[in-house]
Amino acid sequence: MSTLITGIGELSTCTDAGILDDAAVLIEGGRIAWVGPSADASPVPTIIDAAGRALIPGFVDSHSHLVFAGDRAAEFEARMAGERYAAGGIRSTVAATRAATDAALRERLAGFIAEMQAQGTTTVEIKSGYGLDVDTERRLVRLAAEVTGEVTFLGAHVVPTEFADAPDAYVDLVIGPMLDACAADARWIDVFCEEGAFTVEQSRRVLEAGITRGLMPRIHAGQLGPGEGVRLAVELGAASLDHGTYLSDADVAALAASDTVLTLLPGVEFSTRQPYPDARRLIDAGVTVAIACDTNPGSSFTSSMPFCIALAVREMGMTPAEALRAATAGGARALRRDDIGVIAAGARADLVLLDAPSHVHLSYRPGVPLVHSVWKDGVLIASRA
Ligand code: NIG
Ligand code: FE
User: To test the ligand 1 pocket, which listed residue (157, 295, 301) has its Cβ within 8 A of the most ligand atoms?
Assistant: First the structure.
C-alpha cells in the first residue's frame, strides 16, 4: 500500500540534503520510497494533504529509564528548595520497583510509550537498572523488550543497599549471574561511571563483560563531576557517552576524534539545577551530539523531546536545526542505526507532521503541543485530527 503526503510546507530531511520547501513524501511498505517537490509527485490512491505544515523525522530518544514504580516528587521539591541531586536516590526507586508486579510495571510502561508517541517519539531506548538483583533485572529487561528493540542492561546503575559494604562483589554479580539472566533480551550494556556509583575500573569490568556477551557498550558519565568516563568510552568504542555535563578540553578532543556520540540530556540539567553543557563548544569541536530525554523519576521526569529541544536551543547554544538533527539523526547515530532519524528514500517511514510551518516552532513555542500526526513504519500511530 502506498501513501503520499503532499503539500509539506517545510520538510527537514535531517541529512545533508537539509530542508526542502513545498515537498512530498511517498511511503511504501513501511519505508520512505521517494522524497521530492510536491509538483513532481505521482498520484497514488491515498493522498494526505499536509496543508503547508512542517514534516520532520520521528524523534529517536536514545536514553530512557521507563520501567520503574513510584515517583520522587518530594525529592524534586526538596531540590527546588536547594538540595543537591545525588545518585543515592535511585535506591528508593529500586525498593518500589522490586515490590511492583509485572502487570503494574507493564501498564506504567505502556502509558509512557503512549505519552512519548503523542509527542513525536517513534524510537526509544529503554534501560533496566531499578531492579539491581538478578530476578528483578531479568523482569525489567523482558518488559522493556516487549516495547522496543533498543534494550539496555544497566545492572550497574548503583550499588544496592545490601552490597553497600562490598561494591566489587556486586560488580561480580552484575557481570556473572545477572548478565547471564539479561543478555538475551538486551542489545546494549551500560554503566553509571560516577562518584557515588561505579569507579572507572568497575565500569571497565562491566562494559568488557557485556562486550564479551555480544552487547554493545554505552556509558553514563560526567554527570555530577569530571572523571575518566570519556577515556573509557572512546577506548572501548562505546556508541554513546551520555550526560557529559562536565568535560575537559581533552575529553572534547577525544570525543571529536572518535565514533562515540555525546548524548546531551537537557532535562537533567533542568531538573537538577546543574549547569547546562555548552553544545556550541562541542559541535564546533566536531563532536557528534544527540539529544534524549533520560526519562526517569529522579533526574529528569520529562518524556518530551520538543521540551528537550527547546532547552538545548535556549540553554545549550544549539540552533533549532542542530537541535532537531540531534534529536533525530543524532539519536540514531547513538543507537548505531542508519534506518531511522532521517527523511530519505530507503529509511523507515517514521514521520512527524507538526501543526506549525517550520521546525523552528519546536523551540520558538516551548510547552505548546505542536505534534499533529505521527507515523511509525508508515502506520499512523497518533493524530490530533
Ligand atoms: O541518567 N545517572 C544515572 N541514572 C539516571 C538517574 C536515575 C535516578 O535518579 O533515578 C540518569 O540521570
Ligand atoms: Fe540515564
Answer: 157
**What's the one-letter identity of residue 303?**
S
Q: In this predicted model, what pLDDT tens digit does every residue of 25-53 receive, in sequence order?
A: 999 999 999 999 999 999 999 999 999 99
DSSP letter, residue 131: -
Cell of 363: 523551540
Backbone angle region of 353, left / alpha / beta, with phi > 0 → left and psi within -120 to 50 → alpha: beta
Task: Assess whether the C-beta atom of 97 lies below 6 angstroms from ligand 1.
Answer: no
Q: Contact, 194 vs 165, CB < 8 A?
A: no
d(CA 199, CA 46): 56
Q: Mean per-residue pLDDT for 20-26?
A: 98
Cβ pair 146, 106 in contact under 8 A? yes
pLDDT (average), residues 368-377? 98
| pTM of the complete model beyond 0.85 | yes
Instruction: Kindly report the CATH number that applies to the domain delimited by 59-334.
Output: 3.20.20.140
Task: Identify which of 144, 161, 246 has the alpha carbon closest to the alpha carbon of residue 195.
Answer: 246
CATH topology of domain 2-57+342-383: Urease, subunit C; domain 1 (2.30.40)
Domain range summary for the chain, segments of one domain joined by +: 2-57+342-383, 59-334
